[in-house]
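Structure, all two chains, one model.
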Amino acid sequence: MNVRTGILAALFLCVAPMAQAQTELRFACYADGNECEVYRDLLDGFEQANPDISVLVDVVPYRSGILEGLPVTLEAGEGPDVARVTDITGLSRHLLDIRPYLADPAYWEDDFYPSALVRMRLHNDPQGIFGFPNQITMTIGYVNVTLFEQAGVPVPDASATWDDWAEATRQVKDRLDLYSGMTMDRAFHRAIPGTVAYGARYYDDADHLRVVDDGVRAFARRLVDWHGERLMPLDIWPAASGSQVVPGADLFENSETAFLLSGSWLLPRLSRNVSGIFDWRAVPNPCGDAGCPGGMAGGSAIVGFRHTAHPREVARMLEYLASPPALEAFAARTLQVPGQLDLLKAGVPYETDDPAVAQSLEVIGGEVARVSPVIQKLEVEPLQRRILDSGTANLGLATSGEIGVDAALDRMTREIESAAP
Amino acid sequence: MAMNPLNAVGRWTVDWTNPPMRWLQARVGVRRMAFLFLLPNFLALAIFVFLPMLLNGVYAVTDGNRVLPTERAFVGLQHFRTLFSCTNYLDPATCAPEVFFFWRGLYNTVFFVVIEVVCMVGFSLATALVLNRLVRAQGFWRAVFFYPVMLSPVVVALIWKWILDRQGLLNGTLDRLGLDGLPWLLDAHWAMFWSIFIYVWAHAGFYTLIILAGLQAIPKDLYEAASLESDRPFTNGRIFRKVTLPLLMPTLLSVSVIAVTKAFQVFDEVWVLTRGGPGTATTFVLQSIYETGFTTAPREYGLAAAMSILLALIIFLLTGLQLVLSNRRMEDR
């Protein structure tokens, strides 16, 4: 072997591993059910189609991993390349603009539930594209039909008001000696449709944010009264302090409440834990004196972060996950509502034979279609997180009896005003 | 005779470290060698204690939701002004909204500390006195009382949550006995009672051991001398008041100082047990600092840092007061 051959061989040995080198992306994923497993399967297909990229799916807890830990990690310039997040507005400053790498940016701008992109663009380039809503969570009601039948009380129809529901569940509670009649997750997010149903406008005529008005006051009073008479349980709103979210699903699953207002993310869990034990179904959000505003959408989005060393690869991964086949597979297997509008209209071939889930998904689809303009505006409100935290904390105080409704709403007004720019 | 392998290792280590140590000693001198040995500990303290304290100070005088101190805006004492914005300090509702939970938490914490420390020291003293008198199985009973100390606070809270939940073990038992259960964790007074009870249950073993060591350090002949020189017969109560308690005072003082400091830091057990509720009945000051800094929007790192400095000052003052009072009492004696 002469010198030239030796140099070539050495060069080959150096270059060969580089040609094989993979870019590793870290994906922080939280799950309510099987979401991260489904993403792992989908990403296996992505890795086969893109052998130069490997994706490590870190399954993290929602509260400590995503809601509390991720913002601090990102502020320090660390963290995953991609994550499934819910506080889009709070994280928008850290999001990676993938528009330059996308083959069809118009698809990303026009084909997804619009509020997510608006929230991602806050504190960002208004033309940028930063990710996609992979799942819409809609506030809906769940009814324990068996309890209503046992009590001989008809389930209120779709036009029933909160007062109608209160009366019906009061009868069920009294006749069956139930622990509670109706329950609502401890989150102001869930209460907002109720406030709008009783006339809350959230913005004044000049379009300035004015959270507390007669509509909010009317619904807050009802909420506190229902807790006072124990129609609503002590275990949810009064039980915790501050802005902590407390779900009411356990009470519903244990047949300790006849009606639950919660999120559509609960569907797979109810199908798994409840179907076959008692009859249940989803119902639209209750109406009020001011009409039927529908629910309030939330949900999660898959986003990339600007500190990543591999923006092009992140964009390729997001493009794969946002493709209609991947979105459909994700929604079908996780029993979640997709954030892609065509898919939402066409319907998803959900992998379930549970009739309660099929019926509930129809109700959720109807609720997505009739979200009121006020709620749509709140979905993209920059101070949304502050409003939700303040509403949860102060209505929690009022339902526990520590302060009155008026004092709670005054505090809420002051808190939101102090946070306004 | 063949050398024990452990001794061989020791000898080998000495042989190998001796030359560099001699070399170092020749360079820095014998007196400075002590500082050299302490250097690793000093470094660890500096990095993990003093630097975070310094950073906390920097956060307290800066504002914004950025984490890097260089990216934060200097605001001077603004956070402290917000903290002291109440028109009536006995009513947290008159404070700025962002510090409402802090003041509520502080009052709850003060109440908790007063009751908890009295119960903790009293229970630990009583337990230690009983253990000290036990002739048989003293080690076993010491282990029984110490066992909860080894449990993680979250485990302690979960165990008690299963017992005290609305449908928990306690209410289940009461139900079987034909009695009505109570919402132990959903009633403000009961929630505070159980928070104190569980905290004492979980930590008393530690303080019991300290007091037991103090009791065993009292020379036995003092008791004999006291009974010989007294003109009145010595009852157990008198022995305790005249001999045991005075000699145990320094130990009790240490225990009280540690108990007060630890009680001000109550968080994990109660957070898991009651989530600070119902309402704010069991919201303690550390929880409010944590929520201000990390969970409630907008994240107020600066305000949370100012709150923690105020808490540190309160603990520092209380500890100082305890020491002064106890020194004065010792001098009076």
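Residues 138-297+355-419 of chain A form a domain with the D-Maltodextrin-Binding Protein; domain 2 fold (CATH 3.40.190.10).
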